[in-house]
From TrEMBL:
Residues 377-397, 821-854 are annotated as: Disordered. The lineage of its organism: Eukaryota, Metazoa, Chordata, Craniata, Vertebrata. It comes from the Eukaryota. GO terms for biological process: DNA recombination; DNA repair; DNA topological change. Keywords: DNA-binding, Isomerase, Topoisomerase. Its EC number is 5.6.2.1. GO terms for molecular function: DNA binding; DNA topoisomerase type I (single strand cut, ATP-independent) activity. The keyword DNA-binding applies. InterPro entries: Topo_IA (IPR000380), Topo_IA_2 (IPR003601), Topo_IA_AS (IPR023406), Topo_IA_cen (IPR013497), Topo_IA_cen_sub1 (IPR013824), Topo_IA_cen_sub2 (IPR013825), Topo_IA_cen_sub3 (IPR013826), Topo_IA_core_domain (IPR023405). Residues 821-851 have a biased composition (Basic residues). This is DNA topoisomerase. It holds the Pfam family Topoisom_bac. Residues 3-153 form the Toprim domain. Introduces a single-strand break via transesterification at a target site in duplex DNA. Releases the supercoiling and torsional tension of DNA introduced during the DNA replication and transcription by transiently cleaving and rejoining one strand of the DNA duplex. The scissile phosphodiester is attacked by the catalytic tyrosine of the enzyme, resulting in the formation of a DNA-(5'-phosphotyrosyl)-enzyme intermediate and the expulsion of a 3'-OH DNA strand. It comes from Phyllostomus discolor (pale spear-nosed bat).
Length: 862
DNA sequence: GCAAGGTC
């Protein structure tokens, strides 16, 4: 029997589609990566009985990057990134092992049907899947077609079955347009980012951003925030005047009237209007009107609207809201949360989800009434053909979900119920008045039927007292006419919700990536989120945008994205050649880049005003090994040491704190050591600023501290303080933290493992002896006399932290102690490597180490 | 260390 491999874009879709096509008659198992499942069933395909295997990828299989050597910032001129630097496709998520997984499942299959999302990205993923799978599939017999594309616009039985009945071919042009986009984004983004970062971080010490990034989405996003800032700055308040009239409706009620001219900006003219009306005793009713009006129920919910409301009404940032929605989705409470669509398909079962809510303590009454009296058809929205609007799938309570997820779920559910509710109907009563020559009106709204506002009370029409009955020609006594002096006020900073709207309008980012871009400009310290989730640009953000305006405004205008996208669409439609468009666009941006580099002084002038040069920032901390003068420690991101005499900068670890380490020096370069420590885990190790940036030995890499240093005799090195292989990670070594006494600690030099040991020792040394059974270095411990855990008057003991019965009691391994070789039954290390002969080289797991932890445990329990 | 786009 032949086999048909079918691939969807995500595991959940593979399952839904397989369920529909197999009519629920399928068998499922997890794939080798533990994330994707394979659903199998038999059916007919091209007139024959076949076995179907439906599975999925997880988004893109591949990602684009430069060849390794072009990722060395100090060795490559960013200008080379526009053309010379070759790119390669790498697996997007190596942990998922997606290529291998696809090949295992695709091996021996005869046909492939691609069920990727029906957008350009999906089309591109089709070819990523084909690249992985075609080489292992059975070859086609005599011109037989083997590759098919299913096109569907919703995950409903009819759509999916129709797609299966009318299979087409993947669209190569659409896929190519995505390839072009990837390459453009990579080359342009990285070139500008590297140049800016190196240039400005090399000059200023207080930018407080780890990266001065540029991108065709993030930069215009920042641009919107700065544009609003500029409008606030340049705002000049204007004085205006409003005529306010009050009439007596009856004994104890007066009506406030709105002036038909609204306001005037000339004081004398305002005074003239006041003079013309203030002596009038009566207000004449000129007309009355009663209009029935409706407030429309909301459109079905899509992602950006959800994010807007989450930010503006729930105070949840887009990134956080998206993560929360995703959890609600994977737990089955809501439908897929990434969708542009605000329209339910005609055959969508609206009553099913609604029935789920019929017993909910908060809205059972509303839902039951809707079910009994009939629901209203949702308004016609936009159908992007991706996924149905966000819909609650299962009833839930706050206790079940927890406070934050509940608030989002509650909103989604109320919104859904509102979309099948009726519009809110209200009566708008207006009375038009004349006082002297001037006209005024008074308007009042009264609700006829609340409709959807019952379930979305924050949308209700506010309660107002109805107007007194009257008709044309009636008069009311004027209680007061006065002139109010007011001032126009500046706009406020952009709210996240407004920013999302702007991004959507200008096509910056997608529903899934909008939160990422907003998050980016926050993380880079270009904007900060203020109260009310308003985005206030920092000096850095402002200077960057003003700099782009000065040099090349196109770099920050929202059109930068849409202009490129226009070109890409030509590729997608087959109207332009991929190579030509790519080459041309790269050429344009290469020119822009060179012009930008040549004109960078213009932006620098702005930087100078806001930021301090490297030499003027930071506090003296440790001595330089070259000139022996103090170097300054710059704490602001990226934290580093700067020697102003040598004009050299040495980067430091980015998290945690840095202190001088007892004025001890590195034996290799005479630099004073500093001590890095992280608050959360209480981990610390010394490092040499020079070695950290210029690894002294071949087997070392950039960014290594003394706890990874292979110096054979230095007292701070891995060779001298290392104890044995880490209990959790593959390549790490547990190293004694010489500063941790009196609560001594041993920490892995690669992962987060920290072991506490010997609370009451005043001295701990790593001995040159090794343990006979596990080959770890022995520890030589001097305990406090009064608190010694040893028998009798003993205070000193030498032993293995893992195997010695005395020490074992005193050592507490933070993580999974049962994984240690000691508990796995027997020695886990090679014999015969003594100190000074590279006893503990990192990165070489022992030959005798059991393959997996379960078999090790099993061995132990036998 | 960089972009933006998928998705977990």
């Amino acid at each position: 029997m032949k086999t048909v491999l079918m691939v969807a874009e995500k595991p959940s879709l593979a399952q839904s589609i397989a369920k529909i096509l197999s009519r629920g008659n399928m068998s499922s198992h997890k794939g080798l990566n533990g994330t994707c499942s394979v659903h199998e069933y038999t059916g007919t395909f091209a007139g024959q009985q076949v076995r179907f295997k439906m599975t999925s990828v997880c988004g893109h299989v591949m990602t684009l990057d430069f060849l390794g050597k072009y990722n060395k910032w100090d060795k490559v001129d960013p200008a080379e990134l526009f053309s010379q630097a070759p790119t390669e496709k790498k697996e997007a998520n190596p942990k998922l092992n997606m290529v291998k997984f696809l090949q295992v499942e695709g091996k021996g299959c005869d046909y492939i049907v691609l069920w990727l999302d029906c957008d350009k990205e999906g089309e591109n993923i089709c070819f990523e899947v084909l690249d992985a799978v075609l080489p292992v599939m059975n070859p086609a017999h005599g011109g037989d077609k083997t590759v098919f594309r299913a096109r569907f616009s919703s995950i409903t039985d009819t759509d999916i079955c129709n797609a299966m009945a009318r299979l087409g071919e993947p669209d190569h042009n659409e896929a190519l347009s995505v390839d072009a986009r990837q390459e453009l984004d990579l080359r342009i983004g990285c070139a500008f980012t590297r140049f800016q970062t190196k240039y400005f971080q090399g000059k200023y010490g207080d930018l407080d951003s780890s990266l001065i990034s540029f991108g065709p989405c993030q930069t215009p996003t920042l641009g919107f925030c700065v544009e609003r800032h500029d409008r606030i700055q340049s705002f000049k308040p204007e004085t205006y005047w409003v005529l306010q009239a009050k009439v007596n409706a009856d004994k104890d009620r007066s009506l406030l009237l709105d002036w038909d001219r609204v306001r005037v900006f000339d004081r004398e003219i305002a005074q003239m209007f006041l003079n013309m009306t203030k002596l009038e005793k009566e207000a004449q009713v000129e007309a009355t009107s009663k209009k029935e009006k409706a407030k429309q129920r909301p459109l079905a919910l899509n992602t950006v609207e959800m994010l807007r409301v989450a930010s503006s009404s729930l105070g949840m940032g887009p990134q956080h809201a998206m993560q929360t929605a995703e959890r609600l989705y994977t737990q089955g409470y809501i439908s897929y949360p990434r969708t542009e669509t605000t329209h339910y398909p005609e055959n969508f079962d609206l009553k099913g989800p609604l029935r789920q809510q019929a017993n909910h303590p908060y809205w059972a009454d509303t839902v039951k009434r809707l079910l009994a009296e009939g629901i209203n058809r949702p308004r016609k929205g936009h159908d992007a053909g991706d996924h149905p609007p966000i819909t609650p799938m299962r009833s839930a309570t706050e206790a079940e979900l927890g406070s934050e997820p509940w608030r989002l779920y509650e909103y989604i559910t109320r919104h859904f119920i509102a979309t099948v509710s009726y519009d809110c109907k209200y009566l708008q009563n207006t009375i038009s008045f004349r006082i002297g020559p001037e006209h005024f009106t008074c308007t009042v709204k009264t609700v006829i039927s609340p409709g959807f506002t019952e379930i979305m009370p924050w949308q209700s029409v506010p309660l107002e007292e109805s107007l007194p009955p009257c008709q044309r020609g009636d008069t009311f006594p004027v209680a007061e006419v006065k002139l109010l002096e007011k001032q126009t006020s500046p706009p406020d900073y952009l709210t996240e919700a407004e920013l999302i709207t702007l991004m959507e309008k200008h096509g910056i980012g997608t529903d899934a990536s909008i939160p990422v871009h907003i998050n980016n400009i926050c993380q880079r310290n270009y904007v900060v989120v203020e109260s009310g989730r308003r985005l206030k640009p920092t000096n850095l953000g402002i200077v960057l945008v003003h700099g782009y305006y000065k040099i090349d405004a196109e770099l920050v205008l929202p059109t930068i994205r849409s202009a490129v996208e226009k070109q890409l669409n030509l590729i997608a439609q087959g109207k332009a050649d991929y190579r030509q468009v790519l080459g041309h666009t790269l050429d344009v941006f290469k020119r822009k880049f060179h012009y930008f580099v040549d004109s960078i002084a213009g932006m620098d002038e702005l930087m100078e005003v806001s930021f301090s040069p490297l030499a003027a920032t930071g506090k003296p901390l440790s001595r330089c090994g070259k000139c022996h003068r103090f170097m300054k420690y710059i704490q602001a991101k990226p934290s580093r040491l700067h020697c102003s005499h040598c004009d050299e900068t040495y980067t430091l670890p980015q998290n945690g704190t840095i202190k001088l380490y007892k004025e001890l020096r590195c034996p290799l370069d005479d630099f004073e050591l500093v001590l890095w420590s992280s608050g959360s885990r209480g981990k610390s190790y010394p490092l040499c600023p020079y070695c950290y940036n210029h690894p002294p030995f071949r087997d070392m890499k950039k960014g290594m501290g003394c706890n990874e240093c292979t110096h054979p005799t230095c007292q701070h090195s891995l060779s001298m303080l290392g104890i044995g292989q880490c209990v959790e990670c593959e390549n790490g070594v547990l190293v004694l933290d010489p500063t941790s006494g009196p609560k001594w600690k041993v920490a892995c030099n690669k992962c987060n493992v920290v072991a506490h040991c010997f609370e009451n020792a005043h001295r701990v040394r790593v001995s040159s002896e090794t343990c006979g059974s596990c080959e770890a270095a022995l520890l030589d411990v001097d305990f406090n006399k009064a608190k010694s855990p040893l028998l009798g008057d003993e205070t000193q003991h030498v032993g293995c932290v893992f195997c010695d019965p005395v020490f074992q009691e005193l050592v507490e391994l933070r993580h999974a102690a049962s994984c240690h070789p000691m508990h796995r039954g027997g020695p886990g290390r090679r014999q015969g490597r003594g100190r000074g002969r590279g006893r503990r080289p990192a990165g070489k797991p022992s030959a005798r180490r059991p393959k997996d932890k379960m078999s090790a445990l099993a061995a132990y329990f036998v």
